[in-house]
Amino acid sequence: MIDIQAIRPEIIVALFAVLVPAVGLLTKNSSKICAAFSLVGVGLAFLDVFMFVYNNNGAVSISGGMLSLDQFSALFMMIFLAVAFYVILASARFIQEDRHQPEFYSLIMIATIGMMIVASSNDLITLFVGIELTSITSYALVAFRKKDVKGAEAAVKYFIIGGLSSGLALFGISLLYGVAHSTTFTGVAQAVVMNSPMQPVIFLALIMIVAGFGFKVAIVPFHMWAPDVYEGAPTTVTAMLAGGSKKMGFIALFKVLLIGLFAIKSNWDVLIGIVAIATMTVGNLAAISQTNIKRMLAYSSIAQAGYILIALPVAAVSDPTIGQYALSAGIMQIMTHAFMKGGAFLIVATLATVAVGESISNYKGLAKRTPFMAFGMTVLLFSLAGIPPLAGFFSKFVLFSSPIDASSIPGNGWMVWLAIAAIVNSAISLYYYVRVVKYMYVDEAEEGTPTEKLKLPISMVAAVAICVFMVVLIGVWPDPFFNAAQHAAAAFFA
Amino acid sequence: MLLQNVPVITLLILIPLIGAIIAFMLGKNPKASKIVALVFTLIPLAISVLLLADFSLTVGTFQYVEDFTWISSLGISYKVGVDGISIAMVFLTTLLSFLAVLFSWDVDERTHQYMGLMLILEVGVMGVFTAMDYFLFYVFWEVVLIPMYFLIAVWGGPRRAYASIKFFIYTHIASLVMLLGILALYFEAATHLGYHTFDIQQIASVSGQFGQFFQIVVFGALFFGFIVKMPMVPFHTWLPDAHVEAPTAGSVLLAGLLLKMGSYGIIRICLPTLPYGANQYQIVMVIIAIVSILYGAIMCLAQKDLKKMVAYSSISHMGIVMLGIATLGELGIAAAVFQMFAHGLITAVLFMMCGIVGHHVGTRNMPRLGGLAAKMPYAAVFMMIGFMASLGLPGMVGFLAEFSVFVATFDAFGWLLLLPIISVAITAAYYIWAMQKTLFGPLTKEVDLEHVHDITWFEAAPLVILSALIVLFGILPALIFDYITPSVKLLTAVVLGGA
Q1: SS3 assignment, position B152
Q2: pLDDT tens column, B289-335
Q3: Left, alpha or beta for B392 (phi > 0: left; psi -120 to 50: alpha)?
Q4: Interacting residues of B335 by C-beta distance below 8 A, sequence separation 6+
Q5: Smallest Cβ distance to B168: which of A420, A434, A482?
Q6: In this complex, do B161 and A443 lie within 8 Å of one another by their Cβ atoms?
C-alpha cells in the first residue's frame, strides 16, 4: 500500500532543495534569504517527523515496505534534520564570500535526504541508494571551495575512497542477493538462517559490507582518510560529515548486521568487538599528538565511532531486553555525538571567520577574547570526554553499561572487556580534550595575536548555542531523549 | 524537627549554584562578585547550623530525605538526605566554603570566575555528601573535578598547568574505575530486586546476597576509586603537586573537603554495601593505612617547602582515617569520621598559614625563613595553634580524633598499634622543626622582611573561627560524636554481620 506520509519529510526537503537555486536567482544570491528559505524547509520536515513521533502512530511504509517511517527512522531523521539545521544556520555567514551559495544549501539538503532514506530503508537497494545520494553530494560539498588546494585534495581523496567503499559494499550486497534472492533485510535474514551450505559466501559478503560501510564510518583500519577530509573540507561541511553522514553509516551497519545477518552473529560479534576496541584506541592515541584542531577532532571522532560500535555485538546478545538496551545506548551516543562533535566543528568554523587559525595553539588565551565560544568549546569537549552532568556522560554511561550487563549471560563474558577498554580510552581522551581547555583558559595568547574581543557572526553563534544547549539539556534531563532512543530501538527490533 | 517539611538539602545545593551563576555574570564588578560569593556561602552555613540543631540525634537513619524520579527508564532518582555521618561533613563543607571565600578577599584576577568556581565546588562537594543515589553521587563526584581543575590551572603557582592536568586525569581515571564498580552493583542488584535502581539503600538491602567473588571484585573497584581521592600511598602522587600549585583557598577546600570525599565514599558505600568484601579487604586496608601514615610523616621530615610538608602531613592524617575505617568497628569508624572532621578544620588553618607566609614573605622555603614571629606575631600564634592541633595536642580536636582511632586499633589489632603510633613522634618532630625554622630563631637575611606586615582582617577572621572550633570540639567532642555514633552503630551492624 502507498502511504505518502512515509516519505513526506523527504519530499518536503526535496522540494525546498530544488527551489533554493530559484530563490537564489530571484534574490541575487542573498545568502541570508537562501539560508532562511532552506531553514524553513528543514524545519518543516522536522516538524512533520516530530508530529509523527508525538502522535505515536504505528509504522507507515511505502512500496511494499522498501521505505518505512517508524519510531526508529523518525528519531534518526530528526537527528539528521537537526544537523542540517545548524549546519545551514552556521553556513549563512561561513560561505558568504563564495559563489553558488544556493547550490550549497541545496546540496546539504539533498545529502540529508539521502541520510533520511537510509534511516527508513528496509531494503539493501534503498539503503545503497540513500548512501550514494549522501556520498555524492558530500563529495561536492567537500570540494565546494575548489580553489582551496587542501579542499580539492580532500575532495579527491574522499571521492576515491568513497567510490571504492561503495563498490565493496555493493559487491557484498550482490553476494547476499545471490544467496537470498531478495534484497529486503528480512528476506536476507530468512535466507541466512536456512542457507548453511552458503556460509562461506555469506561470510565473504559480511566482510565486504563491513569493509564498505566501515570506510563510510571511518572505523579502523578503514579510517585513514577521515582526518585529511575533515581537515580539508569547509568546516561547516565537516560538521555535517561528523555529525550527520557518518551516523548514516552506523544505521547501515545496524540494519545489515542486526537484521540481515543476525543469524550468523557468532561470526561477527567478536570481530566487531575487536574492531571497536582497535578503533577507539587508535583514534585516541592519534588524537593526542595532533596540532591542528580539526584533525584532533577528526581522530576523536574515530574514537567515538569505536564507542558506538560497542552497541553492535551487545545488541546481538540472546537476551532481547539487553539487546534493545544496547541498541538504544548506541542510538543515544549517536544523538549526543551529533551535537557535541557538530558543535565543536562549528566553533572552529565560527572562529575561522574572524581569522582565528585552526592550529590548537591558536586557541591560547581565547577565553579572554571570546568568553562564550571558550565556554561552549569547554562544555562540548568535556561532554565528549564524558564528564557529568553533560550529554556525553549520560550516553557513554548507558553505552558502557550495556556490555557489563550483557557479560552476565553465559558465553558473553568477554564483553566486559569492551566496557573496560572504552573506559580506559575515555580516560586517555581526557588528556587531549583538557589540553584545549587549558590553552583557552590558562595560557596567554601567543605573541603577535590581537587581544581585542572578537566580533562573531550572530547566526553562527546561534548555531553553536543550539548545540551547547542541547548538550547541557540532554545531560541534565536525559529522560525524554533516552525514552525516544528506547522506542526507536524497540521499533528497530519489532 | 522544624525543618522536616523544608527541602533543606536541596537548598544547600541550590543556593551556592545560584550564587555561582550570579557571580559568573558579574564580570565587570569584582567587588560585587566577592560579596555575592560571601552571602551565598553564608546562607548555606546558617542553614547547616540550623540543620544541626534540628537534626534528631536519637535515630541513626537518614533524615530530611528528598526523593524525586530523575531518569525513570534507568531507575535514577534525585534522592538526597543526611545521616549523622554526612551531617558532620555537610557542616564542614558549608563552613570551609564560607571561610575559603572570605580568605580569598584579595583575589583580584578574574575574581568573578574565581568566586563562581568556589561556589560550584561547594555544590559538588555538598552533593557528594548528601546523595543517596549512585548516579547522582557520581555526577556530583565528577562535577567537583571541574572547578578544582580551573582553580589550580588559572590561579595556581608556576607549575600549575602540569599539576592541574595531573590532578584531573589521575582522579578521573580513579572515578571511572569506581563507575565500573557502580555499574556492576546496578546490574547485580537488578537481578535480586527484579527492577533497576541506582538507589544506594535499596541496593544495599539486597547486597548481602551478592556472590563472594563479586563482592571482592566490586569492592576493589570502588575502593580504588576512593583511595585515590583520599589519597593513600601509592596513589598519592597527584596530591603534593596539586597542593603546591593550588591557590590557598583551593588547597583549603582540596584538603579540607575533597580528600574527605574518598573516605566518606568508603564509609558510605563500600562498607555497608559490600560487607563481605570489606572483611576480606581488612588486611589490605590496614597495610595501606599504616604505610600511608608512616610514609606521609617521613616525607614531611624531608620537605623544604612549608606547603608541601602540610600536603604530605595530610596523607599521613588521612591514613589515620583509613586506619579507623579498617578496624570495621563502631568506635574505629566513628573515630575515623571524627578525624575527617578534625582534619578538615586543622588542615584549613595550616594551608591558610602556608598561604599567608607565601604571600606576605614571598617564599615558603623553610631554609630561607626564620624569625617570622617577631615580624608577624598574630600569624605566628595561629600557625602554632595549627601545628599543635595537627600534632595532636590534648585539648584540641586532633588529639581526640587520633586517640580514639588508636584505641580502636588496639582493640582490633592489639600491638600492631605500635607501628602507626610511631608517626605521632615523627609528626611532633616535623612540626616543631618547621616552627623552629620559620617562626623562631634569628630573623632571616635571605628574604627582604622590610615590608612584611601581620595578617589582615580577612585572613584573621577565618583563622579565629577555625581556632575557636578546634578548641571547642577538642574540649567537647560529644558535640560531634553524638551525631556520628548512632549512624555508625547502624552501619557497623551490617558490616560485622557480613563477616
Answers
A1: helix
A2: 999 999 999 999 999 999 999 999 999 999 999 999 999 999 999 99
A3: left
A4: B324, B401, B404, B405, B407, B408
A5: A434
A6: yes
- C-alpha B332/C-alpha A7 separation (Å) is 69
Alpha-carbon distance B92 to nearest alpha carbon in chain A (angstroms): 24
As a whole number of angstroms, the distance between CA B14 and CA B115 comes to: 16
CA distances from A29 to A94, A192, B462 (A): 14, 53, 66
Which of A394, A401, A435 is closest, CB to CB, to B183? A401
The neighbouring-strand residues paired with B305 are B365
ipTM of the complex: 0.89
User: Regarding beta strands A67-69 and A60-62, do their DSSP bridges make them parallel or antiparallel, or are they unpaired?
Assistant: antiparallel
Measured between beta carbons, which residues in chain A are less than 8 angstroms from residue B139?
A: 388-389, 393
Give dist(CA B288, CA A197) in Å, integer. 60
Q: Answer for the pair B320, B402: CB distance below 8 angstroms, yes or no.
A: yes
Nearest Cα residue to B99 out of B480, B359, B466: B466
pLDDT at B344: 95
Give CA–CA dist A325/B134, Å, rounded.
Answer: 20
> Is the Cβ–Cβ distance between B3 and B50 less than 8 Å?
yes
A:B CB pairs within 8 Å:
76
Q: Of A442-456, B28-42, B197-211, B255-269, give the lowest mean pLDDT range.
A: A442-456
Region A462-484 average pLDDT:
94
Interchain proximity B139–A431, CB inside 8 Å: no
Residues 6+ apart with CB under 8 A from B414: none
C-alpha cell recorded at residue B67: 526523593
Cell of B242: 596539586
How far does B154 lie from chain A, in Å, by closest CA?
A: 5
**Average pLDDT over chain A, rounded to an integer:** 91
The residues that bridge with A62 in the sheet, in sequence order, are A67
Region for B64 from its dihedrals, namely left if φ exceeds 0, alpha if ψ lies in -120 to 50, beta otherwise: left
Q: Which of B17, B137, B139 to mutate to test the interface with A (most CBs of A within 10 A)?
A: B139
Whole-angstrom distance, CA of residue B448 vs CA of residue B435: 20
Strands A67-69 and B76-82: unpaired
DSSP H or E run through A300: helix A293-309
Side chain identity, residue A361: S
On the 0-12 / 13-18 / 19+ scale of CB atoms within 10 A, B368 is middle
Please name the helix (run of DSSP H) or strand (run of DSSP E) that holds residue A61, with its range, or none. strand A60-62
Contact A315, A458 (CB under 8 A): no
- What average pLDDT does the segment B431-446 reach? 86
Picking from A198, A202, A384, A192, the residue whose alpha carbon sits closest to that of residue A298 is A384
Helices (H), A97-198: 101-120, 124-142, 149-180, 185-194
What does the pLDDT read at residue A5? Answer: 83
Using CA atoms, how far apart are residues B63 and B12, in angstroms rounded to an integer?
Answer: 14
Cα B219 to Cα B202: distance, rounded to the nearest angstrom? 17
Judged by a CB distance cut-off of 8 A, whether residue A483 touches chain B is: yes
Interval A132-160: pLDDT, tens: 999 999 999 999 888 888 888 999 999 99
Q: C-alpha grid cell for residue B387?
A: 601545628
For an interface test with B, give the residue of A397, A402, A473 to mutate (most B CBs within 10 A): A397
Q: Going by DSSP bridges, is the β-strand pair B76-82/A60-62 parallel, antiparallel, or unpaired?
A: unpaired
Average pLDDT over chain B, rounded to an integer: 91
Residue A78: strand, helix, or coil: helix
For residue B14, what are the CA distances in angstroms to A291, B11, B17, B27, B302?
Answer: 40, 5, 5, 21, 43
pLDDT tens digit sequence for B350-381: 999 999 998 888 888 888 888 888 888 899 99
Between CA B457 and CA B475 the distance in angstroms is 27
